[in-house]
Specification:
The chain has a single domain, classed as Thiol Ester Dehydrase, Chain A. Helix content is 8%, strand content 38%. The chain is built from one helix and eight strands, in the order E-E-E-H-E-E-E-E-E. The protein has one helix spanning 57-70, and strands at residues 2-8, 29-33, 38-42, 79-90, 100-109, 113-121, 127-139, 164-166.
């Protein structure tokens, strides 16, 4: 199914998942879609492997958790998701050195908490990993001492940013 990209979310400088200046990070880009799913795109490197040529399962869980947790920012720009519980089911190995897509969505949203699901998709569209998480909604000042300028929290446009995606 084809989806229009409505917006790109911010990156920071040192986060393992979205940090653009973390030389060992995933440097993931996050895109808000017209169906309110969040799409993450990254390309794992050799430094992210477990078995040769395969993405480490812990890193797969991290990108899936982050994508589901960030999906709440589509609806609430001032609230962040802090993971309470996360489970994953690994179906297929994830290769290195090819673009990987991750989808996250909100399934339940209450005053204080939200739950979401997501998948890591391979190039052929098949599901490699499924995840489910429960998160508490908090303003950033209750989570960490975060200086937006110091952490370089901003949208960084790229010529590779898609306008539409096939999911």
């Amino acid at each position: 199914m084809r989806h229009i990209v409505k917006a790109k979310q911010e990156n920071t400088k040192m986060c393992l998942v979205c940090g653009l200046k973390n030389q060992y990070g995933l440097r993931t880009s996050f895109y808000e879609l017209d169906n309110d799913d969040l799409l993450a795109i990254f390309k794992p490197m050799e430094e992210h492997q477990s078995y040769p040529g395969r993405l480490h399962g812990g890193i797969a869980a991290a990108i899936l958790d982050e994508t589901i947790g960030r999906a709440i920012m589509i609806k609430y720009q001032d609230l962040w998701g802090v993971t309470i519980k996360f489970t994953s089911r690994f179906r297929k190995p994830i290769p290195l050195d090819e673009e990987i897509r991750v989808i996250g969505r909100i399934e339940k949203d209450t005053h204080r908490f939200f739950e979401g699901t997501g998948e890591i998709l391979l190039m052929d569209g098949s599901v490699a990993v499924e995840g489910h998480g429960k998160y508490i909604k908090l303003p950033l000042e209750e989570i960490a001492d975060f200086d937006f300028n110091e952490q370089e929290w901003k949208v960084v446009p790229s010529p590779d940013d898609p306008e539409e995606v096939e999911i």
